[in-house]
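Annex B. Sample input.
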Amino acid sequence: MKIDILGVRTQAQTFTAAIHQLLEWAKSSESHYVSTCPVYTIMQCTEHPSVMDAVNGASMATADGMPVVWMQRRLGMPAAERVYGPDVMLALCEAGLADGVSHYFLGSTPTVLARLEEHLTARFPSLRIAGSFAPHFAPPPTSHDPATASQLNESGADVIWVGLGSPKQDLWMATYRPHLKAPLLIGVGAAFELISESRRQAPRWIQRNGFEWLFRLGLEPRRLWRRYLIYNPRFMMAILRARRRS
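Annex B, continued. Sample output.
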């Protein structure tokens, strides 16, 4: 069920249903990409038409943050659950083991990627890893790089996990999707750092109650203050304005 939140067509669903759909796409010959959407991504969509087009062009835009889930529930999908990047990554890696689904990791740094592969193979010894690549940090792409596309295609990956942060990863997927053979691309933000334990993750009770942003802000105030202290209030104000108009 699609739920419109400030113009972003989010998929309201249970976590189990999301993983089932993603596994089917990973095994198919179709082309899909998935955006995981916390509040920050939705607000970037409202400010930048190119980001809105990229996220709405995705086959699935998940509710990555609890405020987004709460809005989905208020707008007609009471069973909606959080479909959070790191959880999606672990669940899909496990779900695809029986079918030999292969995975490629793009983003972050070589050190984080090495630790990520170590953690994943320890948890899932039969996991098929097609490769990994830490690109140079640069502005979001406006056109694809043929060499990068060739490298990804030659890997034979079924799923390409894109950990470039939002909205860069959403723009990257929209740009590269037509040039890649992998059936499924999934943008997962900081999942590489969190799963590899390169960055601390909020306890589950904090996540469930919608205070993960406060936990992360406490860890990285200089990097994240703008994302949370400016965009979270803007999101609430935008929601209130939208409700008054409706």
